[in-house]
Amino acid sequence: MTSNLLSIASSGARAAELALDITGQNISNASTDGYVRRSANMTEVASSSTWSTANDVSLSGVVVSGIVRNADSFLQSEARRTGSDTAQANTTVSGLTNVETAVEDSGVFTAIGTFTNSFKQLATDPADSSLRATVIQDGSTMTSAFRIAAQSLSAAQTGLQGNVGDGVTQVNSLSTQLATINTQLSATAAQATGTGDVTTSDRASLMDQRDSLLDQISQYANIATTVQADGSVNVNIGSVSGPPLVTGSSTNTLSATTNADGTETLAVGNASVALGGGSIAGNQASLTKLTQISTNLDSLASSIATTVNTQQANGADLTGATGTALFSGTTAATLAMTTSNGSAIATAAAGSAAKSSDPTNLTAMTAALATLDPSDTMNDILTDISGSVQSATTTQTTLQTLSSAASSSLSSQAGVDLNTEAINLVKFQQAFQASSKVMQTASTIFDSILNLTN
Amino acid sequence: MTITTSSSTSAFYTTAAQQLSSLQSQVNAVDNSISSGNQYATASANPEAAAQMRMLQLQDATAAVDTTTANKATTNLQLADSAMTEMVNDINKAKTLATQAANGTLSDTDRAAIGEQLSQIQTDMIGLANTSDANGNSLFGGGVSGNAYTTDASGKAVYGGAATSQSLGIGGGQSVQTSLTGPEVFDITDANGNSTTVMDAIGTLATALKAGGTAAQTAASDGITTLSNGLDAVTTAQTVIGARESWIALNTQNLTAQSTARTTAEGQIGGTDVSTAAIKLQQLTTALQASQSCFVRLSSLSLFNDIGN
Question: Which ipTM was obtained for this model?
Fold first, then answer.
């Protein structure tokens, strides 16, 4: 019995020491990203007596059978999913804001207004050279504004395409790392003696790395995961039915192709990928909107050029000749004035003499521009993009709330609370001291028996 | 803001950081709106308001052009008005002279002298009919460059201007003709019902008086009737010009009222209500300070401070 008491006490001391180690590990990793709180899984050792005597008392102390990794897979996947959605929303908002800034700061709206007003101003004295020069100046200011908008949009497009490319590279690199972790998890599967969450410390840290990699991939693209019995994980990109990205130790490469209109298409092998979350999806959405805005801007620039040029041909310029086109180019980027000479504006009716102050064609020009109403179209374009930014921001706020709630639940379930660890520290210290006391008692009992014989 | 009953230390710090930075960014936004005077920093903060603001500002720019145009129209109308006042004086003078010439007691020499004076008045009238507008073009010639009237070999005034006067937009979809054409002012019928112009009527009278004889006295009597018609024509035209001037004044008044309304609307849609913003700033600052001191208190609460001693 006494030798038994000593071994029981030593098993208790060993278990308490291990539990203290785990507590120390938890405290050290209190602010480590992706670290899941560990706890010791203690099991009573109650070996049955060799002789199977009825009512026999057979006690053998305690053993740490494994380490419990306190991760709730539902909370984890929930945090991952909402995190992926939030990453998409964040990228969409920042991408669309870039588009908004590009179009808004170029001053196209104001420049169009000034240009159309300069024609009205010219009506007060159609033959006046300074008023004509003003129209030409305002026209070239407008073409510059269109060009600036087009260049800013093009720069934003390049940036977004670059982001998609970087995202794809990251996903591929993370998939490769995940495949390595999968291999190690499969190889160490035999060591996992316990059931459920009970595992070894090595495997616990592999699982931390696995979950951290999944979190990182889902920041770029939304994924569906299937955890295998050996702890390895299979990843499908886009959705559960999407193409497989990681299967055990093998990976498939994600690739991005830039389309003619500047948008990006993703594929794994030949299978196309439609993302529903992650920053790559946000960049893709921004690119689609950018392409649409860019097309609208081009068609507006083209319509202004066509309207003015058509009307020019119907009248006579200051030299009495038939008016020639004032604008060249059919896109926002290429729109330009063909002349810097104010006398080229055809204000008079066709066939008028030189230096005619007849305003017939100018009145028709003003009327044609009023019918086209380019300012209104530009206002619609600006409202379109700023409306998109606003709605994306609203979505972002909602998703951020969901995501921070999910990560808070996960973190409160799986994260380290220093106060709890402080209690554990005291608890296991006392357990260790108590086991030492038991050893001392066992020793005292043994001594007193030894003393009997003397 | 998310309220979680978190039991994880890192979650506590993350949440605190999120809450403080969210409050801080709200404080910055209010601060920005007060210092810039604009309620919204970007169009996406309120796309509808931004669209309205853009259109209001465009209308402001257009209204500035309309004001310039209206001023130009007023200038031309005033020029026409004063030229016509001169014309009325001339015609009255010619009428007085014709009345004198119709007196049977005058000699041919006296009538010839009156005819000489009438020739002067005719020249003066043609000069007035060729008055330039603010751009240096013909005021009564529909804005063509050069003179509205030239005299042919027989001394008759020939109209060479446009068929209509220039029309200018004065805002609010309104436009106004900035003058009248020569025919609109000067074309009259003489005592015998033949059409002529005021200038030609004076010229014909002058020629007849210079020629002398009994025909001169008859011509003078006819001339009184013809010149009365001429006076009617010019004063009627002057009334039209005066009506247009007051129409522009009314329209300008209307545009000014609209501009004031736009300024008010711009202030309401896009401007910062400073008192509301200041109260919001105070409220947010209080919340931020409270959150900060809460964080300091909570973060200093740790079991490790109390155990192990």
Answer: 0.76
